[in-house]
């Protein structure tokens, strides 16, 4: 996993993509597809005003339905701005509403000990009219080497 970002005028970004050395096998492609689906569901469904818990459930439900729920051990995301990790929280425990105007990460992942993991993280602006994707580049499973 490549987790990276930039700072511009004091504001942070936070992005993760998954890379495979060589050609991915069927299991790597399968897990990547599940995470990509969870990321897409959460990016499309997240809204200002919903609780962090409800936002987290958008991706968690997708991963649970694919039989990988126990392998998604962290929350869906967090706010970013002047700090790389700040409020609001998109987690199973957060009842707080997501405010309009916030920028949040959408970063579902699946991780298996001894095997590795897949995470796809994007930054989304929560406008009053709906989510606006800020990290619009490939979410494909990247092959190197």
Domain count:
1
The spatial strand order of the largest sheet comes to 7-6-8-11-12
Find the count of extended strands (DSSP E, 2+ residues): 13
Amount of helix: 10-25%
What is the chain-wise order of helices and strands?
A: EEEEEHHEEEEEEEE
Q: In percent terms, what proportion of residues is strand? A: 25-35%
For this structure, the quaternary state is single chain
Q: What Rg, in angstroms, do the CA atoms define?
A: 15 Å
Number of helices: 2
Identify the CATH architecture.
Alpha-Beta Complex
Shape: globular
Structural class: alpha+beta
- Uncertain regions: pLDDT < 50 for 5+ in a row? none
CATH topology: Creatine Amidinohydrolase
CATH class: Alpha Beta
Task: Tell me, rounded to a whole number, the average pLDDT.
Answer: 97
């Amino acid at each position: 996993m490549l987790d990276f970002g930039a700072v511009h005028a004091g504001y942070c970004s936070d992005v993760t993509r998954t890379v495979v050395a060589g050609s991915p096998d069927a299991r790597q492609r399968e897990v990547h597809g599940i995470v990509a689906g969870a990321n897409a569901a959460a990016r499309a469904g997240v809204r200002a005003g919903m609780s962090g818990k409800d936002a987290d459930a958008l991706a968690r439900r997708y991963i649970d339905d694919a039989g990988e729920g126990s392998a998604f051990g962290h929350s869906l995301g967090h706010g970013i701005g002047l700090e790389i990790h700040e409020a609001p929280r998109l987690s199973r425990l957060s009842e707080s509403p997501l405010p309009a105007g916030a920028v949040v990460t959408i970063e579902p992942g699946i991780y298996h000990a001894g095997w590795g993991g897949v995470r796809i993280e994007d930054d989304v602006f929560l406008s009053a009219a709906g989510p606006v994707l800020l990290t619009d580049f490939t979410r494909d499973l990247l092959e190197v080497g």
